[in-house]
Design goal:
The structure is a homodimer.
Chain A lengths: L8 E6 L11 E6 L6 E5 L7 H10 L6 E5 L8 H19 L6 E5 L9 H13 L6 H7 L8 E6 L5 E7 L12 E6 L5 H14 L15 E6 L9 H21 L7 E9 L2 H12 L2 H8 L5 H8 L12 E4 L2 E5 L2 E2 L12 E7 L5 E8 L3 H8 L4
Parallel strand pairs in A: 4-5, 8-9, 10-14
Antiparallel strand pairs in A: 1-2, 2-4, 3-9, 6-7, 7-8, 10-15, 11-12, 11-14, 12-13
């Protein structure tokens, strides 16, 4: 299912020989219309990979015929030659589809600072084009994996019978905005590119942007939303927004659970904030405390490390009015010792840390993982 | 030597029974004058431990008779009762010295969120007072250790014959401002508290504030500078500033080398910055990239992770003009692939990453460590 769950889409995932492992490493997603409306959200990193620079330019037109994605190389920090490689990839896709390169988005993921093996990649585009099918969604999702241990796919049915489908990859460098990831979402509903853009920005701000596995922001993050209009349904915009958000949230959850070396999925729930931005900032800052992430890994409800992190933010709060609960036990009340910390059950994989700033009605939840020796191993044993 | 290297100071370090290990855990440093001028710099964390709140108040008077320090408990997030404990500790020191509690600073370090065992601590003050001596500097430096594997001490002789001595502790939560640490610096030169304050702020901004082991800011950081005037020397202020900075740099280096679980000492040297603040911000941001710290641990000169971190800052730079050298090899030039990365020798413990922003003449160096499985173990295996 994945990106081919909605009508009007074909996809393929093949092994082009880009990855040393020999596994699938090139995916192609094609929108057969009748509509080609599309929108994209990209990394906020100022060092952007060539495919991000290219796809941003393409998306300014609000239309996409196809998306070509490769794992095995990020094509980031590769200079004008790297941009030329991306351009050539889009031209090749346009050629095999007899369409315009100006409506072909390109996504790459893998090691930064190395050129892509273009001969293999361009031959792979031919091969992928030959295998495009309405059942190709799973193979495409498989082909964009890097250190992901599983493919990430999702789909939901909307009111009136339209579908939203999606695939994503990402297992490290998960940080806003966005998480380090590639994501393609498709729908057979009929919407304008402006509508898609508004819906996608809101959906990603509530989901992928609130995922922070290791605080590291990628050069390649891309989330695309393509609408074929093939179901002939003009959905209610709010209802459509909810469906896209559900798909994004589902994929974000899958990314979190598969994050490199993680043994815990931690929800940092900030309540009582003076504004939503305060809640997000506090959650983000706490989610980046290596000391706290180690403590959670050790199943230690060390709320002092939560307060130490909250204290580094400029959110509205008074230290003596902070309350912290871990898995429902209010271990810190009024900035000091609260209920007995030995009552906290730290054994489940899911850990919820609730931080009450006692400063207002606003809330936000940031999702992160623990810091483990396995994370260190995965990110020090080889280049990625 | 340590804090008792200059004339006019006595110190002691004893086992009061605060630490479960039974090791030394209480230090007392006394200034016998004739001067009592003093200055202090404290954590920027908004969640401040009781002893920080107390000592900031004391230092507003610009005079210190004594400093009492304990390991085995941070007395942070302990509410009004914790502040009362700090107050009682200062009163006890004043009593044994027949002096004023208003000129006694208190420092604590250890686990956040637990009350101190006051009976043991107050008895310890009596014991320490009985052991005060001009040779007590080493015992005092030993008593403030937590996860530090060695004591940190330093001393330098100034022009005209005065001395500057110091001791410090800190092995985790090393982040500005300041690194998670306690530090007491003494001198027998004769200076006003205003002069000491200016010198200390400048010295810490160039040393401890540029140390960032794990990005976590403590609730207890304190650096104190006490002048007895016993050498009868009024030093040149600039020369005195250099000496204090040298002592701070020496202690900072010792903290870095002893940082929890570290196997590499990494200097992030930022050059070509439009202003000093840009250089500091870029260095700090790069020093906090878990992915980069893992790569350095794995002896992988992964400059892509450097650029990915630089790109998240708001410093003045253009991505295509960034250059990066690792241990002297310019592996990234003009934002792209530079010299052969296989030429980089990653085996030495010291690793220097030079980032040229190509945007101006300013520079700054931030010191950090690699991220290791040992760090994870040390911070997850027990509460600290």
């Amino acid at each position: 299912m994945s990106v081919t769950a909605p009508l009007g889409f074909r996809a393929a995932g093949i092994a082009a020989g880009i990855k040393a492992s020999g596994g699938r490493d090139l995916a192609l997603v094609v929108n057969d219309g009748p509509s080609r409306a599309a929108a994209g959200v990209f990394t906020a990193n100022r060092v952007k990979a060539a495919p991000v620079l290219w796809s941003q330019q393409v998306l300014s037109g609000g239309r996409l015929k196809a998306v070509v994605l490769n794992s095995g190389g990020a094509n980031a920090c590769t200079g004008p030659e790297g941009f030329q490689d991306t351009h050539a990839t889009a031209e090749k896709v346009a050629e095999v589809l007899q369409d315009s390169a100006g409506e072909v988005a390109v996504c790459s993921t893998g090691l930064i600072g190395e050129r892509l093996p273009m001969e293999a990649l361009l031959a792979g585009v031919d091969q992928a084009a030959g295998q495009l099918s309405k059942n190709g969604g799973l193979a495409a999702a498989d082909a964009i994996r890097t250190t992901d241990t599983v493919s990430k796919i999702s789909f939901k049915r909307g009111e009136g019978g339209y579908m939203v489908g999606g695939m994503a990859k990402g297992a490290g460098m998960l940080a806003p905005a966005l998480a380090t990831m590639l994501c393609v979402i498709t729908t057979d509903a009929d919407l304008t590119s402006e509508e898609l853009d508004a819906v996608l920005r809101r959906a990603t701000s509530l989901t992928f942007d609130r995922l922070d596995a290791d605080g590291c922001m990628s050069t390649n993050d891309t989330v695309l939303l393509l609408a074929s209009g093939a179901a002939g349904v003009r959905p209610d915009l709010e209802e459509f927004g909810r469906k896209v958000t559900e798909v994004c949230a589902d994929l974000a959850r899958q990314l979190l659970v598969d994050a490199e070396g993680a043994s815990k999925a931690i929800a940092i729930e900030v309540i009582g904030a003076a504004c939503e931005q305060d809640a997000v900032n506090v959650g983000r800052t706490v989610s980046r405390s290596n000391l706290l992430k180690c403590a959670i890994h050790g199943e230690d409800p060390n709320w002092g490390r939560v307060l130490a992190a909250v204290g580094t933010t400029d959110a509205v709060f008074e230290a003596e009015r902070l309350n912290v609960a871990i898995n429902g036990i209010w271990v810190c009340r009024g900035g000091g010792v609260g209920d007995d910390r030995s009552k906290v059950d730290m054994r489940p994989r899911d850990v919820t840390i609730t931080i009450d700033l006692s400063a207002g009605p606003h809330t936000a939840t940031i999702h992160t993982t623990d810091l483990t020796a396995a994370y260190v191993h995965e990110n020090s044993a080889y280049s990625s």
